[in-house]
User: Fold LTA synthase family protein from Cohnella luojiensis.
Amino acid sequence: MVVFESGPSWQTIVTELPFMWLVFCMIEWFATKRKLFIYVFVNLLMTLLFFAVIMYYKYYGVIVTYHALEQVNQVTAVSNSVISLLDPQYLLIFTDVLVLGFVNFRRQAAQMWKNSTAVRSSRTVYMVLFAISLALCLFNVMPHRASMNEIKKAEEMGILNYQAYTLFNNQELKPIEKDEINQETIDRLKGVGAENGVKLYEGSAKGRNVIVIQLESFQNFLVGLTLDREEVTPVLNRLVKENLYFSRFYQQVGQGNTSDAEYVVNTSTYIPPSGAATMKYVDKQLPSLPKLLKNQGYDTATFHTNVVDFWNRGELYKALGFDRYYDKEFFGTDDTVFFGSSDEVLYEKTAAELVRMSSTGKPFYAHVISMTAHHPFTTPEEKDRIQLPERYEGTFVGDYILAQSYADYALGLFIDDLKSSGLWDDSLIVVYGDHLGLPMHSLDEGDIALMEEIYGHAYSYTEMINIPLVISIPGVTKPGKFDNTGGQVDILPTIANLVGVSLSDQIHFGQDILNNRNNLLPERYYLPSGSVLNESALFIPGNGYEDGSILPLAKKFAKKSDSKLSEKEYSTALKLLHMSDSYVIQLPNLEESETESKQEE
Assistant:
């Protein structure tokens, strides 16, 4: 019931048992000593795999595979988040392991087991059972290989078969040739029109500092939210009312979450098919926003209170071309919450450093990563800025709202510092959420009811991945709400338009959302592969397009007939993902660039 909507059924038994028989046949064939111990050990491995599938799905909403092993070194750092997802009933999955382990360590019982298994059955019996099991496994796997939706694929193949399939079927699509990847083709696929006439806000922030603020786990429903007539995020609400606000803006992160948001925003390319971008793509010479602005004379830096090694950020920042990064070594351990100093410390020390950078006379690009409002959102009581209604107290949703009310308060302090130093009026400020904070799969019945109360309807995938985007050019921008669809991949080209920098020589998969009303946003992670957004709907595939689901993005598209995403758009989204993957993996290696630099010296 946790992963598959249909819950336990005869299908579950039919799909999972044959793989187990395969393994048990091999134990009977090859194990001559300590057979009981081997049975217990193998059973433990399978149980741990099922447990990992449950826990991973609870947060990411996808089926874990061996690719997630790259995340193992991150687990200890987010142990609080992992524990918060654990429902005690999930531990019942280990009951059989405990029973077998108990038998194994009781001499008399273990001896009885050994005596009963000492008599070897005919090898012919095992061969027949092995052949039947293998045939059943193949019968479960082969017809479902083409399915796009990994959850459906795992359900129809069986969890164990699916894991084996992903392990041995490591075939990747043949990369698109480099000379076939160009901006004209990308724009044509996305439906981006040729530039005609004057572009909205073109060059309006030319020469200004660029300050991009990434808010941890910040979802769009927080904008304007009041509980018992108390504003949850008054600072962001004021920013929204006074500046350019994109209400239908969406995350495009993957396994790396926050670090993936940093990658997508700074490169305008999509995350890899599996794994985090910081693990897969940081050995490449990535065209990026820092490099683009450095060519315009900008000083570039990124600020994050955690250690730079977390999610391999040190390599990411090198690949992106930041002049400097500021991490835990700079911010210290004062007022530590979760991984590092609080947002108050982050913003206070960052503001002071930005003043120093500005004193050089050069404009700067600063990417500021907030972190205090991190899953599981158990911030200290002294950080609380609002009083929760009683029904929200002690709930996951309530903890999330408290954490974000603090994040909003700290953001307000940063804005005050920027204004008092004069930097606010000299800058382009971009504020957005990095990724969701309330995965649908992590909510219990009480939390689901609270989210329905907040939205006035059932909480769905379209709301789950919806994050805010606010753009401010003090003295230039006027209040305005945009309801066209946008995603994190669009931030780079939008900033380029505002600072008046041409992207004619830089491949990008996003678009300037101030001047382009039609969009197509492929999604990976948190949703099945092949999921895509257009201006009216979120499409989630089934085994393919035909049995996929359409979810409206807004009330004005409430009728299914009003919310459409064609098969052509679906195919185009898959092609865009493949083109992005092909483009990045064929970029020159970073080592080549470093070697060339040394030779020039």
